[in-house]
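Quick one, tokens below. Sequence please?
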């Protein structure tokens, strides 16, 4: 479709990004022109804008104080463009811009100069959606949000604001889109001005369908904020996080409740929060907050359920119990919340809440430590994987029927064989034991998929990962496994949404963020690669602030530094890390990626790669064979010789 719509086109569904400058009319004429020039500069710097314009698939309509951009390929285009513009505007704090996105029909119109342009409801609704926001907001119509919700990468960034009344009494259903570095997470002023009783109702996730003869059940919405760790020991954070996550999981089993996801709730972790503002921002009726203190075999939990409309306490309680009572205590809290909300549990829901992976508190405590280590570490860290196995092996000695612990053993054993050629079955027996105990355990199916993938049993791997995604599409581990499987199959565009979802689900996951650098670089999306590098570096630095000797964090962090143009700092990190953790092969591998792909130092990359090829396992060797980060080395005779020698070594030892 050329820049001017052809006159014979009467109606077409398009994807519209409408944006304007907030407060434009109050500026002097020369100030207005300067602001428009700045806005044009930022918009034109967007790679999505440039690609659509270069392909002749973009219409640009000036609107005086802003513009409408009409895309033809996908509803993701205007949203990606909006995010790029939002990040670009960080350099222009004096330029307040709001944006709205809608998909709908437009038609051709002819102006007084006999030029063909675009008009129609698609553009009008995009403007109405935008009008609901303030400076920095990226608001989407419900139609666009529903399209994006089909892709895992977008779900964590979509926040339902419900219906709002706009011009001429029209009502539009609006979602707020924001990420760590783009958009505006604040509740729009129009929504804040409404009295609580007038607040628009959001559309929650679909409830479980009513059974035949069962009346429809009204769903109440709730956000469980991360419980504060009051133990006086930062190392006990895993326990307070585990309690919070388990309460979220329990309440999510109640069909009459809409529970905000763990990843959204945990964005408030460690921050001072105004409960009423949280309720308004997430459009929930109730908020649960609390604290956990664990010491000397005792646990004290305080919890309070708050009505988000008036900040009043619906229910509050303090529990001081023996640590061995933790499971009964969790059940008691979940039941108390359900009772306070006047929700009736179905029999199967009551059973689901009271079902635990283990009834032994010592096994549970060990598993929580191991799970935290896996979620916030790096998969290629051999010492960490060995620690996970020790923790979980002790857990299953205490409770042999602890399926979740068996599944985590399988993951760590698979990773040790993959990265360093460790002997054994690569975790297969542990994965199968987990599934014997709990056939619907998504993480066990996910690790089994990884094991099959390592053995090149690709059809079986695909079946297992699809089962895992069906059972728990919100699992961090499942999304990470799905991403890596598709990466190994060289399906880069398909693996990106799963890596994005993994990054969103776990704030400590720098490894998935690092993989996004590789994917976006290979696809030529430099802006997205840079964004992934910023996230990777921020997460690596956060880890290193607590653990300065973490070689895995330095491995991914150095690659991010290289992408961000900080080559000398990247090399400093490499030198320090090699002194601290010289046997970390995956760390060396990431240094190679930085040197070869971003610093253009091929000889240094080959020197770094030699010791890694001498020790890495089959999985990492297979990864090297398809990794686009190593493409600059692939035709070098020395690289070919080292790769061939590594393949011969694993064949002989196998």
């Amino acid at each position: 479709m050329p820049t001017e719509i052809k006159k014979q086109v009467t109606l077409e569904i398009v994807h519209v990004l409408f944006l304007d400058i907030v407060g434009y009319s109050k500026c002097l004429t020369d100030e207005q022109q300067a602001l428009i020039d700045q806005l044009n500069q930022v918009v034109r710097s967007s790679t999505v804008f440039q690609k659509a314009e270069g392909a002749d698939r973009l219409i640009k309509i000036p609107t005086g104080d802003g513009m409408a951009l009409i895309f033809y390929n996908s509803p993701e285009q205007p949203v990606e463009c909006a995010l790029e513009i939002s990040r670009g505007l960080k350099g222009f704090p004096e330029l307040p811009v709001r944006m709205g996105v809608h998909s709908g029909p437009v038609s051709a119109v002819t102006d007084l100069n006999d030029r063909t342009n675009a008009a129609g409801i698609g553009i009008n609704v995009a403007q109405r959606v935008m009008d609901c926001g303030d400076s920095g907001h990226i608001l989407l119509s419900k139609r666009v949000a529903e399209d994006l919700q089909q892709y895992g990468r977008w779900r964590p960034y979509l926040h339902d604001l419900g219906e709002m009344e706009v011009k001429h009494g029209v009502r539009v259903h609006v979602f707020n889109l924001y990420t760590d570095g783009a958009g505006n997470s604040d509740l729009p002023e129009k929504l804040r001005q409404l009295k609580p009783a007038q607040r628009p109702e959001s559309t929650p996730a679909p409830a479980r369908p009513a059974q035949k003869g069962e009346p429809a059940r009204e769903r109440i919405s709730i956000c469980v904020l991360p419980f504060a760790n009051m133990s006086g020991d930062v190392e006990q954070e895993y326990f307070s996080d585990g309690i919070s996550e388990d309460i979220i999981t329990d309440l999510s089993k109640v069909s009459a409740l809409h529970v905000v996801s763990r990843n959204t709730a945990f964005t408030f972790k460690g921050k001072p929060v105004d409960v009423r503002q949280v309720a308004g921002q997430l459009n929930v009726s109730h908020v649960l907050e609390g604290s956990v203190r664990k010491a000397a075999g005792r646990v004290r939990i305080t919890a309070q359920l708050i009505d988000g409309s008036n900040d009043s306490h619906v229910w509050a309680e303090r529990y001081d119990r023996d640590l061995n009572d933790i499971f009964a205590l969790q059940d008691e809290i979940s039941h108390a919340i359900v009772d306070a909300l006047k929700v009736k549990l179905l029999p199967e829901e009551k059973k689901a809440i009271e079902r635990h992976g283990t009834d032994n508190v010592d096994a549970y405590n060990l598993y929580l430590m191991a799970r935290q280590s896996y979620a916030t570490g790096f998969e290629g860290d051999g010492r960490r994987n060995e620690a996970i196995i020790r923790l979980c092996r002790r857990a299953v000695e205490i409770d042999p029927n602890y399926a979740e612990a068996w599944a985590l053993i399988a993951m760590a054993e698979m990773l040790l064989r993959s990265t360093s050629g460790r002997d054994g079955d690569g975790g297969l027996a542990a994965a199968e034991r987990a599934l014997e105990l709990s056939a619907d355990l998504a993480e066990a199916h996910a690790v089994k998929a990884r094991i099959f993938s390592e053995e090149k049993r690709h059809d079986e791997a695909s079946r297992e990962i699809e089962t895992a995604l069906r059972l728990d599409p919100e699992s961090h581990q499942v999304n990470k496994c799905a991403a890596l499987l598709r990466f190994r199959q060289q399906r880069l565009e398909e693996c990106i949404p799963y890596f994005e979802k993994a990054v969103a689900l776990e704030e400590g996951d720098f490894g998935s963020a690092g993989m996004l650098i590789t994917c976006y670089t290979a696809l030529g999306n430099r802006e997205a690669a840079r964004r992934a590098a910023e996230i990777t570096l921020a997460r690596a630095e956060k880890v290193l602030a607590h653990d300065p000797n973490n070689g895995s964090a330095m491995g991914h962090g150095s690659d991010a530094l290289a992408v961000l143009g900080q080559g000398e700092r990247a090399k400093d990190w490499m030198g320090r890390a090699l002194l601290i953790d010289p046997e970390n092969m995956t760390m060396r591998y990431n240094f190679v990626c930085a040197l070869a792909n971003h610093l253009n130092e091929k000889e240094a990359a080959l020197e770094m790669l030699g010791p890694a090829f001498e020790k890495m396992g089959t999985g990492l060797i297979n990864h090297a064979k398809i990794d686009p980060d190593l493409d600059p080395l692939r035709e070098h005779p020395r690289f070919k010789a080292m790769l061939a020698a590594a393949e011969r070594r694993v064949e002989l030892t196998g």
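The chain is about 50% helix and 15% strand. The radius of gyration is 26 Å.
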